[in-house]
């Protein structure tokens, strides 16, 4: 089969022949149809993720059609459409037993420690292949386990957003556009903020209560104005990269007493500085969150199938043009997700 292979960090991926994966009794083989791209793919190809081996096939947001099913895998058969939960939890540690596979310290992940979806075929743990309706387009199915389920986990499990609360979403990109939808679905009042006019315009279709261009007006002042001087219950940081540290002061300044800041985006070697007096007197919670649980993915699949959440895909590229897609992501991250489509 063909795959896009990372042979050296900070070098172009190579389209080459590789052996087709062999599955075990608890695995399935899928014919990959689509892969989402996120900023983590830039970190992987750039050699910043220390657990990634070489040579390596990236791709941790994948969806495809089941073509072979292991003898011990129930509920799946050839022809089923699936989206792939990337974390293969050990199943035995305290975290896995409690359903928090994303905390499992020994879990390999597709596209990270084990080969991912930038290929024609992909081995997947049968437990991680989540069936999805054929009515959901491949490009939308692919981004559910990361761009959507990660945000779902952040809002439901970490921030524990309640109906009637005010939630500020900073950064209307691949994560923020989905966080905005989910916060509305949870009954919150949503304030969407960004500095890119096109993204602010794109956010309008999902009907946030207020849209703020934080380049032309003070976001903390606007939030205080909208909340009778109190501030927001929850602020969701969805920008990532080096900008995380830059927007931290404004993020904290938007919070009410006892408010929660959820940090979705990150970069290596970027420390966050917080005045301890402000933290203590503000009684804030600063919450880091990573990935999602398998059940989160199942929940989001159900919401997408019901039409209550919409996966937002901004641009499509053939898999062979992954370098162009990565360059586009590096230069100007779009409103939603960039997706790679696999050919026949």
UniProtKB/TrEMBL annotation:
The record ties this protein, via PROSITE patterns, to: ADH_ZINC
One GO MF term on file is: oxidoreductase activity
Q: Which cofactor does it need?
A: Zn(2+)
Q: Which UniProt keywords apply?
A: Metal-binding, Oxidoreductase, Zinc
Q: Which Gene3D superfamilies match?
A: Medium-chain alcohol dehydrogenases, catalytic domain
Q: Does the keyword ATP-binding apply?
A: no
Pfam families xrefs: ADH_N, ADH_zinc_N
The Enoyl reductase (ER) domain covers 8-340
Query: What InterPro entries does the record tag this protein with?
Result: ADH-like_C (IPR013149), ADH-like_N (IPR013154), ADH_Zn_CS (IPR002328), ER (IPR020843), GroES-like_sf (IPR011032), NAD(P)-bd_dom_sf (IPR036291), Zn_alcohol_dh (IPR050129)
Family indicated by similarity: Belongs to the zinc-containing alcohol dehydrogenase family.
* Protein's name according to its UniProt entry: Alcohol dehydrogenase
């Amino acid at each position: 089969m063909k795959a896009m292979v990372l042979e050296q960090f900070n070098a172009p991926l190579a389209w080459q022949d590789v052996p087709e994966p062999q599955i075990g009794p608890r695995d399935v083989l899928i014919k990959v149809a689509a892969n989402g791209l996120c900023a983590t793919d830039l970190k992987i190809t750039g050699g910043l993720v220390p657990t990634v081996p070489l040579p390596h096939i990236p791709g941790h947001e994948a969806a495809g059609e089941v073509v072979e099913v292991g003898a011990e895998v129930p509920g799946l058969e050839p022809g089923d459409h699936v989206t792939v939960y990337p974390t293969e939890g050990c199943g035995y540690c305290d975290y896995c037993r409690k359903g928090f596979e994303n905390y499992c310290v020994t879990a390999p992940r597709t596209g990270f420690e084990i080969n991912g979806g930038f290929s024609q075929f992909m081995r997947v743990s049968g437990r991680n292949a989540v069936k999805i309706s054929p009515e959901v387009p491949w490009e939308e199915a692919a981004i559910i386990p990361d761009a959507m389920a990660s945000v779902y986990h952040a809002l439901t499990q970490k921030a524990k957003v309640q109906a009637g609360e005010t939630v500020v979403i900073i950064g209307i990109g691949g994560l923020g556009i989905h966080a905005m939808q989910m916060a509305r679905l949870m009954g919150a009042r949503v304030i969407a903020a960004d500095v890119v006019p096109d993204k602010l315009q794109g956010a309008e279709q999902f009907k946030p209560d207020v849209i703020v261009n934080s380049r032309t007006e003070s976001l903390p002042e606007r939030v205080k104005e909208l909340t009778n001087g109190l501030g927001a219950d929850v602020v969701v940081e969805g920008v990532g990269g080096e900008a995380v540290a830059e927007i931290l002061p404004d993020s904290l300044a938007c919070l009410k007493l006892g408010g929660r800041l959820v940090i979705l985006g990150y970069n290596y070697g970027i420390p966050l500085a917080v005045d301890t007096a402000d933290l203590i007197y503000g009684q804030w919670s600063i919450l880091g969150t990573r990935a999602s649980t398998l059940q989160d993915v199942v929940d989001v699949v159900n919401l997408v199938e019901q039409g209550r959440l919409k996966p937002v895909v901004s641009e499509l590229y053939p898999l062979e043009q992954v370098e162009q897609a990565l360059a586009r992501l590096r230069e100007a991250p779009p409103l939603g997700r960039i997706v790679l489509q696999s050919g026949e």
